[in-house]
Amino acid sequence: MSLKGIHQVISSYIDINEEEWTTYSSMLRIKEIKKKDIILEAGSTCTDVFFINSGLLRVYFMDQDGTEKTFHFALENTFATDYKSLLKDVPSNYTIQAMEDTQIVVMSKEMIYEGYKALRKGEKLGRLLAEHYFFMFNDKIQSIYTKTPLERYNNLNISFPNIFQRVPQHLIASYLNISSVHLSRLKNAGE
Fold it and tell me: How is the chain split into domains, by residue range?
């Protein structure tokens, strides 16, 4: 169980010395999640940010018809959370589920706020992580409205290498906002 990945990612955002890292990392918790386990249930309030050491998380919501809609996949060395729920203490609209046996590093909301004070550049780290989440959210929404299904499919292959080996096709179709039949056609055309 390692904190190497999160240390590298945080260090790519801000300068953090060994003393700061030792203090900050002592607050992190590593957790093993089994495939299909849910780490955030829609309707509950999100209290943590999850860093993926290994494995894969899916962020999804239910539409008005009760159909699951995949919003995002979080791969190794990335973060997953529901920032609105976390920051505003409101019920989450999203569910976060492990698609594989997954190891996460859990950063509690309290720890994040403590990091704002304990790290010289803690507030910068929080801002940059929130900006990253905002850009991901913005790109996803913009893609649905401005990109063709083929363009979304091609971008998926760039953003999530090997996703077809890791996630069932119907969930990928949901992420692309197309039917499984349409996804099959796109895959066959590209082969």
Answer: 4-145, 147-191
Q: What is the DSSP string of 136-158?
A: HHHHHHHHHHHS-HHHHHHHHHH
Q: How far apart are CA 9 and CA 11, in angstroms?
A: 5
**Segment-wise mean pLDDT, segments of 10 residues, the chain, 191 residues:** 89 94 93 98 97 97 93 95 95 97 96 89 90 90 92 90 92 93 84 56
What pLDDT does residue 123 have?
92
Of the candidates 115, 103, 93, which has an alpha carbon nearest to the alpha carbon of residue 26?
A: 115
91 secondary structure, DSSP code: B
Amino acid symbol at 110: E
Locus of tokens 């780290």: 125
Whose tokens are 């860093």? That residue is 51
The CATH code belonging to domain 4-145 is: 2.60.120.10
- For position 92, what pLDDT does the model report? 97
**Token reading at 110:** 């309290």
